[in-house]
Amino acid sequence: MLDRQPPHPRLATAALRRFAALALARTNQYGLRTITTPGLVAAVPDERAGHRPSISPPAVRMIDALTPETVEPLLRGRFGRPLVYEQTCESTQRLLGADLPEGAAAVCDEQTGGRGRLGRSWEAPTGTAILCSVLLEPPAERVVAELTLVGGLAVAEAVEEATNLAAQIKWPNDVLVNRRKVAGVLAEVADGAVVLGIGLNVNQTREQLPGDAKVAAGSLLTTDGIRRERAPILGDLLFRLEQAYDRWREGGLDSVYDGLGARDFLRGRRVLVDGEVGLGIAVDRQGRLEVEIGGERRLVESGEVLFER
User: Fold this and answer.
1) Which domain range does residue 113 map to?
2) Is residue 4 part of a domain?
3) Which of 101, 115, 120, 122 minimizes the number of CB atoms within 10 Å of its CB?
4) Would you state the pLDDT for residue 303?
5) Domain for residue 6, yes or no?
6) Euclidean distance between CA atoms 113 and 86, whole angstroms
7) Stretch 107-129: mean pLDDT, rounded?
8) Domain with 235 in it: what CATH number?
9) CATH number at residue 297
10) Same-domain check for residues 46 and 141
């Protein structure tokens, strides 16, 4: 009779990951979504529209952290090395010193002075979002403003991987799922380098999202009712950003345009540009938004464009 030996730890871990990739989420009588992830089975409130639990659910504890010890084993490339983490900070951009290498990233669980475009604040309850900045050193011949779209493409791909839902890019810097903004991207020049800031709503409930935003806000949780660990999403996002950035460095926006064009949210939609109603045509290969207003084609290089829901 042969002795049965326990599986090697690495093989066991790989098996768990394969199992997690095939796991399904289901709603039980408590109105909870049952989710299987490597090393964790969790039941979380179903936040999908129209669903309310019929009875009080049992207490649920979920493991979620963005510390280097959690994130670094999930990194697949050079981005995120090193990873600077603070539980609370004014802005992750301020955590990235000029002495750090390209690809260094900073994350926090709570940001007290986060900013979006046009000086707007970006806030999220502690531990619910991915708040991240990445240090970049693009070639002088590249247009820095294009990095907002490059970052948006990486975020959209990471969101699609996490949710199995289509994500779209609203020019110039928003990522939408089901017409709701789940992420924003902002590129800023600092000390001769570029800091790309990313805010991705992961586990906010509807009550925790801003209700007065010009583009209706959402999170991955409110999209499909699943509460997720943020570290795997961050690891995947940094890898996709590295890939998109490297292509952009070599070939400009044209080298990532297929991914952008396929996710162009404003294409064919009625839009409002500087108070004038028009039709969104497309984001062109120089990162400008082409619109048609009064039968005339225009190229918009900056500003805010609203759309009809």
Assistant:
1) 68-262
2) no
3) 101
4) 84
5) no
6) 14
7) 78
8) 3.30.930.10
9) 2.30.30
10) no
Q: Is 203 in contact with 221 (CB distance < 8 Å)?
A: yes
Dist CA 285 CA 263 (whole Å): 14
Q: Is residue 286 part of a domain?
A: yes
Q: Is the pLDDT of residue 41 over 50?
A: no
258-264 long-range contacts (CB < 8 A, ≥24 apart) are: 259/153, 259/156, 259/157, 260/149, 260/152, 260/153, 260/169, 263/153, 263/156, 263/166, 263/167, 263/168, 263/169, 264/168, 264/169, 264/171
Amino acid code (one letter) for 115: R
Closest CA to 113 of 128, 135, 95: 95
| DSSP line for 242-275 | HHHHHHHHHH-GGGGHHHHHHTBTTTT-EEEETT
Same domain, 91 and 210: yes
Same domain, 173 and 288: no
Whether residues 208 and 298 share a domain: the answer is no
Would you tell me how many other CB atoms lie within 10 Å of the CB of residue 68? 16
pLDDT of residue 48: 52
Count of all residues that appear for the chain in the document: 309
The yes-or-no verdict on residue 261 having pLDDT over 50 is yes
Confidence band of 181 (pLDDT split at 50, 70, 90): very high
The two three-digit tokens of residue 297, written as one number: 């084609």
**Is residue 7, in this structure, part of any structural domain at all?**
no
Q: Is the pTM of this model over 0.85?
A: no
